Amino acid sequence: MTLLTTMMERPLDAGYQEAADRRAAAGLPRATSTRTVLVVVLAILAGFLFAVAAQSLRPKPTAAAAVKKELVTRIEALQKHGTDQEAKVAALGKQVRDFEALALQQSGGPDLTARIKDLEIQAAAVPLKGPGVTLTVDDAASTVADGNAGNRPSSGFQEGRVTSGDLQIIVNGLWGAGAEAISINGHRLSSTAAIRFAGQAIIVDFRPLARPYVITALGDPQGIQQLFEPSFAGLYLSQLTDQYKIRSVMAGADSLTVPGDSSARLEVAQPIGPTLGSTAPAPPTLRSGTSTPQGSTGASTSTGRSTSSGLPSSNPTSSSAVQGTGSPASPTSQENPS
Q1: pTM
Q2: Residues near 225 by Cβ (< 8 Å), separated by ≥ 6?
Q3: In sequence order, which residues have a C-beta less than 8 Å from that of residue 157 and are 6 or more positions away?
């Protein structure tokens, strides 16, 4: 108690108190001012030393870092340029199709507009709009860097990451559940599209995908969800969530849009025979090189399942939809393009 009382009544140390009394007796201030020239100079010098030390400790950019930064800048610029060119190609392709339809109507021959439109739908060359589901798949919140993905086809991916094999199984499951048209992050899956990997990147037709992976599937929303969840693909996706914490969310929607395959182009033109009263061949019927109506397993939508406006019907479980499940058989080859 004596010590506490002394600290409360005389907080200043005895030595400091004596020095203050001596300065007061000499007619000086009891304490030195903090605004003296010496204090200011010392403060400036200390700040300068701290700034020099921080600058020297900052890591200097190496030649490799400078090259990497330049490459990233060039890649981003080229990706933007490619996206702009794809949009331009899509707009010009629509104009070409409009001119072709007008030319066919004015040719005097049989009107092949409806047939060409059906073939374009089967070849995934045109956008489609209608009801469907969106399945968003994303990596786990924290991934393990040991590259061990268990017994699933990992291709060297970390265990908490979505792999190309995972997307192949999921997409095939959606085809089997009655999906009529599918796209991943805006990339349309046709009979020639392939989901592959290159290093640690997932690519579709040599175009890289960025997480999260949003899979859009057109068809009957309820039918797709009811058939997908108990299927092998649905159980496989549930296992990814339980064992590897990979996140997935499926939601139905009344109006979804999948773009056309920008790589689909006309490769074969075959005449359908001469018109009546004429020995000259009739205008050719167009057949896309990516999908043909005879024996084609890559048709995402059949003629009897889509209206003339390209809207898929609400019956994804018909026999034509079952045939359409074979369309991703070619894309699911897990090859490394390198």
Answers
A1: 0.56
A2: 133, 177, 250, 252
A3: 147, 149, 163, 197, 200
